[in-house]
Design brief:
423 residues; alpha+beta
Length: 423
């Protein structure tokens, strides 16, 4: 800015010098001391003078005492520039005057740059203030922004440390502060993770409590019969046979319970599935024939004329159907119907029996672990209350949906829907 404005001033002063040199009176030796010669070219903050070759001032005009007091320095050549005089910047032009190729004097114009310098000082001051303001704004703005940004993160870290110290899960409460959308998403994701962990821990506690309760009964029976045999029953054939039968049944129950618990624990793993593409109709037909032969029960399969291709874990889907068909066999005497249908996006499998049915208020609890609609009947049929929990987990891992429709003394239908997937 200083260079641009200074060049502009030099250009203006050079134009004035050219105008003076074009004046015919200046080209005449006898007119150089004319008082009116320079008056029409004079401006404030300037000094114009004509100096003889001997250094004598022939003509001079100006009102600034500092400029008028400047010493005379004759120059035989064209000279221009900027210098400091009396603490102020001045711009000057020195031009020799010729008469028939002979130097007869020198024209000197000097102008103070007070106004320009004052403007530049204002500009520099403004730039300094705005720069300092920008720096302060950047410092405090950055501090405020980082504090606003890191405060929820620090809160999260503190919450995590508190969870690690106390062992109790806690969520981060969203207060009235206006966190950014990203931080809100982060806090919500953290709270969802804590909520999911809390549900998992609660399920684990409930599972351990239920498993302990379920294990307690057969262990008590085994311990009681073993104690009876040890004390006095070994010599009584009837008592001995009863004890051996009871111990064998309860041991088998323990084995089934342990197997189901291990299977349910494996089902909690996300990589439990081994996906592949297979014909679900063919698989269900084979399963129906096998269970018909094993249990001597009629199992009818209804499907489309052509096969239905499905991308899923074949073994897990087969295990799911075994659980559902086994329940239908236990609690009904009529034939069991399996219907397979498909749409553009879904594959549906319905397992229908005409058994005793399930009370409506019991249906929401069917898939809870160790839950039985009729505990005595379930034990009589060998159930441990984990089959439907395993079945639901298999459906969930396939991103499917399972529903139960039942009426007392009319039967139960369990409908499973699987989304179609590309292999």
């Amino acid at each position: 800015m200083i260079k641009i404005t200074t060049r502009s001033e030099q250009s203006l002063l050079a134009n004035k010098v050219n105008l003076l040199l074009e004046n015919k009176k200046i080209q005449e030796t006898g007119s150089l001391d004319d008082p009116n010669l320079l008056s029409e070219f004079y401006n404030v903050n300037e000094m114009i003078r004509i100096v003889s070759t001997s250094g004598y001032v022939l003509n001079q005009i100006g009102a600034d005492e500092e400029l008028l007091s400047m010493p005379v320095e004759f120059s035989w050549n064209h000279d221009t520039g900027i210098k400091t005089y009396a603490g102020k910047r001045v711009i000057y032009f020195k031009v020799p005057l010729y008469d028939n190729m002979n130097v007869i004097g020198m024209l000197e114009i000097v102008r103070k740059l007070n106004l320009l310098d004052s403007y530049l000082q204002i500009l520099v001051g403004a730039l300094t203030v705005t720069s300092l303001g920008a720096i302060l704004f950047a410092i405090f703005g950055t501090y405020w922004f980082t504090s606003r940004l890191t405060s929820p993160i620090q809160h999260m870290v503190q919450t995590m440390r508190e969870i690690d110290r106390s062992g109790k899960l806690r969520q981060i409460q969203l207060d009235g502060r206006e966190e950014s959308a990203e931080l809100q998403q982060l806090i919500r994701a953290f709270n969802q993770m804590i909520e999911r962990l809390d549900r998992t821990f609660e399920r684990q506690k409930q599972f351990v409590a239920d498993a302990s309760h379920e294990l307690k009964t057969p262990l008590t029976v085994i311990s009681s019969y073993a104690g009876m045999l040890k004390r006095w029953g070994r010599n009584d054939e009837k008592v001995r046979d009863e004890a051996v039968e009871a111990i064998s049944n309860e041991a088998q129950r323990l084995q089934n319970l342990t197997k189901s618990m291990l299977m349910l624990a494996e089902a909690e793993q996300e990589d439990w599935l081994r996906l592949g593409t297979f014909d679900v109709v063919k698989m269900v037909d084979e399963l129906a024939d096998m269970m018909n032969t094993t249990f001597h029960r009629t199992i009818r399969v209804h499907s489309e004329p052509i096969g239905v291709r499905m991308t899923a874990d074949k073994d897990k889907v087969r295990q799911l159907l075994v659980i559902l068909i086994d329940n239908a066999i236990k609690y009904s005497k009529e034939p069991i119907d399996i219907t397979i249908s498909s749409t553009k996006n879904m594959i549906r499998i319905d397992v229908k029996d005409k058994g005793m049915g399930i009370p409506e208020e019991e249906i929401p609890h069917l898939f809870e672990r160790f839950y039985r609609v009729d505990g005595a009947r379930s034990r009589a049929t060998g159930g441990v209350g984990l089959g439907l929990s395993i079945a639901k987990r298999i459906v969930e891992l396939h991103d499917g949906n399972i529903e139960v429709f039942s009426k007392l003394n009319k039967g139960t239908t369990i409908a499973i829907q699987f989304p179609k997937k590309n292999n």
